[in-house]
Amino acid sequence: MNALPDRYDRTDELVLREPGDGRTLAQRLSRRYASRITGAFVVPGREGSFAPLPEDLPTALAKALKLRGIEQLYSHQAEAWKATRSGAHVAIVTPTASGKSLCYTLPVIAAAMQSNAKALYLFPTKALAQDQVAELLELNNAGELGVKAFTFDGDTPGDARQAIRLHGDIVVSNPDMLHQAILPHHTKWAQFFENLRYVVIDEVHTYRGVFGSHVANVIRRLKRICAFYGVTPQFILCSATIGNPQEHAEALIEDAVTAISESGAPTGDKHVLLWNPPVVNPDLGLRASARSQSNRIARLAIKSGMKTLVFAQSRSMVEVLTKYLKDVFDHDPRKPPRIRAYRGGYLPKERREAERAMRAGSIDGIVSTSALELGVDIGSLDVVILNGYPGSVAATWQRFGRAGRRQQAALGVLVASSDPLDQYLIRHPEFFQGAPPEHARIHPDQPLILLDHIRCAAFELPFVGDEMFGTEVATPWLEVLGEDGLLHREGDRWEWIADSYPAIAVSLRSVADGNFVVVDRTNGRQTIIAEVDFSAVPVTLYEGAIHMIQSTPYQVERLDWEGRKAYVTRTQADYYTDAIDYTKLKVLDCFDSSHAGCGRANHGEVHVVRRVPGYKKIRFYSHENIGYGPVNLPDQELHTTAVWWQLEQQVLASAFEDRQQALDGFLGAAYTLHIVATVAVMAEARDLQKSVGSGDGAWFVSADISGRGRLRGGDGQPTTLTPDAPFTPTVYLYDAFPGGIGQSEPLFHRREDLIAQSITLIERCDCRAGCPACVGPVLATEESAADRRALRIAAHERDNATPKALALRVLALLVAL
Amino acid sequence: MRKLREEAGHTTVASRPVVQLAQHDAPSKKITPTATPLSPELRRLLKRHAHLKREPAPPVSTDRDVPGIELSPGLRYTETCVDWLRPPTIIDAGFARMASVHHDRLLHFDTETTGLAGGTGTRAFMIGAADWIDGRFRIRQLTITRMAAETAMLRTFAGWISDDTTLVSYNGKCYDTPLLTTRYRLARLPNPLAGLAHIDLLHPVRRHWKGQWENCRLATAERQLLGVVREDDLPGAEAPAAWLTYLRGGSARNLRRVAAHNAQDLKSLAGVLVHMARVQH
């Protein structure tokens, strides 16, 4: 146990001797770690608001509810009943665990009993669908209601599908299945569609960005098929708290909805702490890791007898934190485990088992990715710890919403990472306390997504005349498909003619199709142990990568790119791996341009190449970098839209001593602009990317180990420019999706605002020379103390040449005159 | 992208207030449908991300002769009678775990389709059906030379079927019947195949000869059981291209070969059925 870190004996004195509640733990943490807590507030609990069971509820259903212990409804459930019975599309927006599902279950079951009406439920994940069917069956069995509910997903066996199509009153599926299996075979579902009365879409806040834009188009196709069968189903949508639930629901179904947003469910108080790890190196602005802090808080909470959930940002961080907690709580292999990991990429069976164990209360600590953010039923929890800001205020509250019992105070702690966005937000508690949560945005008419779905729709039913698809006339798009040989025009009809099944080639969740499976070959085995999304493969499954599953390390031995397989074996490695990736950009077309101070701001189309040249090996616990390895994978290319800023060569020549200074300034400015822009358009950080390079793709700049700009040529190798070579450094912010997803245009409109906010951010930062919270890390931890001293002296001498000062100078040149 | 789309005659969602989305409620207020072509830039973007390669248009041909009489615009009909076997009056279908059936009631059928992808986007462009008339084998084929004739073809085929028809096919239970069921549904016509007795010869052939022959395709069964060797047979996989070529103004030569292939399939169906009905004793 010597390897165990940092002074955990000292935290032991904070352990609550009796089973604690969130309030007591929050108070003790606040006293002991006052300097780390940047914000503390209490979301007061709420008395429940109730309504009697509606009088027009079928008697058998009312009886079933009573048998299940439900004698009355929460007010929002009663409201939802009234609104759905009146025929309106309804959106229900209430917190986690407020009994949302009863809002749609009641009208759906009543209609099934009274008029044989059918309902389609869509959940974003299979796990949620299975939960829902289990709940429906319990209610159905309690009252012998005779309503048949089935899941229909990729796991449904072929011989069961026919029965489900014919006899299912409620079919519980997901958007991917609707897209790939139901709509393209709608004739098999004819009876179902002819009687379809309700479409229930839960967790609609997850349908945003690219995924949401796809789903909105799947809904357009669903409505088109419904029209063919002569039905206009009513939509019931549910969402966790977001800034624009009604607008978002209306954008998804392209129709007016009635929003219900007052929850009548009672809750206990919720204590929230915003936690910034302590500064360990003031010169460099370096803080202790979020991981060490989350680990410590989790240990304390679990020892205090509180059920604790830790959310981590990446799958590998889940594994690292699980390992650390297991090292403390699960070191005796004879006892059942108290700590579990939960994330996508585990096989369904394993996840179901974890869910069961959590509901049964035999697990004391869970470490999860966003997979548990949704409504998977895992019972009540006392403490939720977020290891890093989840990317949006809405997601922060959704995760905090996991903690809470009716009678007892719960605790939520957000631990900021060194990520600049985290540092920016943790110092502004007002973002969490009063500000409305983010808006969910979709862009269903994004050309590539639209064309994908018009292609699928044309397969499902011929387009006739100047038929609309969503808000556009489909004809010009049909012409493109006609030229591709997919459609044949005859008179005013466009008929599908190709021997292909277009929905298979369109994945709702990622750009390129095909998950990778991870095959364990330890000791001659051939077992599939995990699945990984295509987009995550280049940074997680390269040869040499350590891939962790339930905190057991596996090493990737071979990656079969074409076959979508990674072969791994068990390993005893004491390190994990972290991919290095970089991008280069080239401008293809400029849509719009304007003066920006002494330079120009532009908006247009760009070509992006992303490459993973290698990876770092990082030792557990000490987190020192113990080596590098090469990665040999195909480049990821994309055409997308971007906004970019440029300064003329002579402007730079007079403002900076040399080109290196200018590059450092651009690199810092890019870093800051990216932080500000991510918040400004409420993007998922991964959907908006930054880069610094030349305008023509000849070279680009990446930060070296000391945070200084390093010029690289088109081949990715370090390079230098001859003194007479043209020099127009450019900072880009681009949409990380082919064709763009509509983020760069609003950024262009707000270009002046972004520059001004970036300047404010840097000026107000507490650091001296630059830090991860403003212009990016200035010097990595590996640097020796001597170097640090040298830098300090040098920097004192030339305080106007710190990365911070240089970035400010670039931004100042871009301020509108 | 925004500029591209404006050039393309579209407005962007970002600049359109959400309330307008509810326009589906009020068709009268819909945006006037304008079919402005997409801009060249947008087309280029779409092309760069196209999943499928563009097929070259077939050369325009003067050989446009599809045999048969035109029952209605775009629907061709051929009928031939051949002397082919002497079927027993009562076919013992015990080998297919079915009751005996008078040969008058048999309808052998086989479709030629635009592909194997399945789903609502695959259609039959040819339906062949054969029955015994006064001891002779009558082969009737329907071919559509344009899409719009599909409904007429489906109606005509339905007219050949009665409640006591017994269907005979090779893999028809899994392929031809579901495919036609989908087409009848899309054409909003009643499905004449629903509930009929259906002898699908694939399954009994598999039970008997799987492992003994290199495969259990109809071409193998007819060679092994009936000694049929086809000459100049168009492989089934090329049927979709044959029809598509014709549809796009190309030569009808391969479409005629599809018809010959289809007719031979029907004869072999009858031959295999009669053979199997006999061997079980």
What's the end-to-end separation of chain B, in Å? 73 Å
Number of continuous helical runs of chain B: 8
Gap from first CA to last CA of chain A: 62 Å
Give the CA-based shape of chain B: globular
Task: Record the strand order, biggest sheet of chain B.
Answer: 1-2-7-6-5-8-9
Fraction in helix of chain B: 25-40%
Please identify the oligomeric state: heterodimer
**Spans of chain B with pLDDT under 50 lasting ≥5 residues?**
1-33
Number of strands of chain B: 9
Give the biggest sheet of chain B: 7 strands, mixed
Shape assignment of chain A:
globular
Largest sheet of chain A: 8 strands, antiparallel
* Rg measurement of chain B, Å: 24 Å
| Approximate strand percentage of chain B | 15-25%
The helical percent of chain A reads 25-40%
Please tell me the overall pLDDT of chain A.
85
Percentage beta strand of chain A: 25-35%
List keywords for this structure.
heterodimer, A: 817 residues, alpha/beta, eight-stranded antiparallel β-sheet, seven-stranded mixed β-sheet, 26 helices, 25% strand, B: 281 residues, alpha+beta, two-stranded antiparallel sheet, 8 helices, 32% helix, globular, disordered N terminus
Report on the structure:
- The complex is a heterodimer of chains A (817) and B (281).
- In chain A, helix 10 runs parallel beside helix 18 (447-460) and helix 22 crosses helix 26.
- With 817 residues, chain A is α/β, with parallel strands linked by helices.
- In chain A, the strands form eight sheets. In chain A, strands 29, 30, 31, 32, 33, 34, 35 and 36 form an eight-stranded antiparallel beta sheet that branches. In chain A, strands 1-11-18-17-14-16-15 form a seven-stranded mixed beta sheet, sandwiched between helices. Chain A has a seven-stranded parallel beta sheet with strand order 6-7-5-8-9-4-10, sandwiched between helices.
- Helix content of chain A is 35%, strand content 25%.
- The N and C termini of chain A lie far apart (62 Å).
- Helix content of chain B is 32%, strand content 18%.
- Chain B contains eight helices and nine strands.
- The radius of gyration of chain B is 24 Å and the shape is globular.
- The model of chain B is unreliable at 1-33 (pLDDT under 50).
- Classes of the chains: A alpha/beta (817), B alpha+beta (281).
- At the A-B interface, helix 11, helix 18, strand 21, helix 19 and strand 23 of A face helix 1, helix 2, helix 4 and helix 7 of B.
